[in-house]
Amino acid sequence: MQTLFENIAQLVQVRPVETKLLRGEQMNSLPVIENAFLLIDDGIIRDFGPMGEKPAIRPDRRIDASGRLLLPAWTDSHTHTVFPGSRYTEFMDKIRGLSYEEIAARGGGILQSAKRLNQTSEDELLEDALARVHEMMRYGTGALEIKSGYGLSVEGELKMLRVVKRLKKLLPIPVKATFLGAHAVPQGMQREDYVRIIVDEMLPEVARHHLADYVDVFCEKGYFTPDDTARILDAAARFGLRPKLHVNQFTSCGCLQTAVRYGALSVDHLEEMRPEDFAALSGGQTIATALPGCSFFLGIPYAPVKKMIEHNIPVALATDFNPGSAPSFNMNFMVALACIKARLTPEQAINAATLNAAAALELSGEMGSIARGKKARLILTRPLNHYGEIPYYFATNPVEELFV
Ligand code: NIG
Ligand code: FE
Q1: Helices 331-340 and 346-353, axial angle in degrees (round to 10)
Q2: Is residue 345 lining ligand 1, measured as CB closer than 6 Å?
Q3: Scanning 27, 54, 149, 195, which has the fewest C-beta atoms within 10 Å of its C-beta?
């Protein structure tokens, strides 16, 4: 099956296939071919270039992309898409002025979702999550990560990860599963005892059933310490699970350094950054993932991504889609927030949401840029003249069709 796009106003993010991660200066440019064609053959990008070089072929499908852009689909590398119901009542508390921490201290927050999750059937969780991902795809998401972390019991965590495993089979886009048993300490339990359960009971089961690609810890004051994190990551390493961690959301408390020491694929959140945190990431392989939807929703600082780029740190963007701190899965809006609130240029933000985001799920060898041989996971936009109009028309949906 061959599909030929013709007259593409801008073919965006054209890179050599070996370019898999961008940092520093490299993030400042976004290579484009104007008035381009692109040929998909059996789901693979076979050929592309200026219209003048279009091959004489008779494809199965022709798409006239005049006045529209074609770009790599977004990768949403940090989500909590499997959750029971919403936490709308907390939204009201937030409007009345309570902080995320205050809501959690009153028994709301993650523990509230955990209570409900353990009363919700696996099929119902699956059905809700499936509908959410289909909606995400309408907004241009072409790959995503989903975390556990609302089970907080052996059975609950396994249930969540089984849902993710079923989603992997049902969806036409790649899904990566992250085990986040260490999301909060269950009510009435000592932290040390829960960490022991994670290490001795959850991790072996997760590994035995091949339920996770990565491991995560919410390393934060009031949640899990750098020492807890190290214990969990040591155990996870024995099962070959690489870390992607929640760090520096509310405080900078040494978690980031622990993450780097354990070779984390990414560190996510990073709203609170001290000079030593920039130094720990500068020039390294760990990807800094900002979650601007969370900053927007909670009214907390935005991760200083501009400064990170200046420090030669590879930056990615994700939604953090979850019922408590970031109930939006609109990656287009994340790109806009990164530009408007964190002062990234559209080039930097789109690089962060495509190639670097794919790298944050180890998918940048197969998607995230326009290159021959890569999987054709692409966004065809509605009428737009320039990629900079994606963040400019903030909170709208630029996607006319997602090709996966
Ligand atoms: O990334 N910070 C920890 N976890 C989520 C929030 C989860 C929730 O509130 O349900 C986050 O912000
Ligand atoms: Fe999160």
Answers
A1: 140
A2: no
A3: 54
